[in-house]
Amino acid sequence: MAAGTRGRLIAEAEMLVRTRGYSGFSYADLGKAIGISKASIHHHFPAKEDLGAALIDSYKQRYEAALEAIWDESPSGIARIAAYARLYLKGIEQDQGCLCGVMACERDILPQRLREGITQFFAEHLVWLRRVLEAGVENGTIRQGIDPAAQAKLILSALEGVLMLGRLFGEKSGFDAAIDALGKSLR
Q: 153: domain range?
């Protein structure tokens, strides 16, 4: 039961962070949502920082698996970028921000360990995107002459921004247009 409770705590806390922010919920909110006491939460996560670190780690592991699957699906750089973008579309459809993106907005109030976890998450995504772009240039699915490192930052920034705006305006049409523009800039 403990692993099940821990998993439920992580899943519910992730939803709370992705919708309210890290500072926007308490252990009381989390306990109420899944029907356990604050003391029981503290048994699994003695401090909120411990919970935050577990959230980042869980999110990072899911994304690592998704990025690996995307890489294996197609050699096309454009197809890989589009598949990566669809991960962000799920956030709009669920009316949830990117966990690490939401937490990055609260950087100045976060413990150093969480800042480092978020930084690592995004650094790994930038490396992966750069690899996608380099491989795409090499196999001819991405146009020559791009700066893969700069383009990776542009893609990541655009997707994080369009997710935020999509949630704000409650629509995904801007998302589709942004993805189309990204694809055109790479062809």
A: 48-186
Domain for residue 24, yes or no?
no
Q: Could you give the number of structural domains in the chain? A: 1
If one counts every other C-beta atom within 10 angstroms of the C-beta of residue 132, the result is 28
| Per-residue pLDDT reduced to its tens digit, 9-41 | 999 999 999 999 999 999 999 999 999 999 999
Mind listing the pLDDT tens digit for each residue in 120-164?
A: 999 999 999 999 999 999 999 999 999 999 999 999 999 999 999
Asked whether the beta carbons of 85 and 186 are under 8 A apart, the reply is no
- Domain with residue 105: its CATH number is 1.10.357.10
Report the 10 Å Cβ neighbour count for 86: 14
Please enumerate in sequence order all residues whose Cβ is within 8 A of that of 2, keeping only pairs 6 or more positions apart, or say none.
44
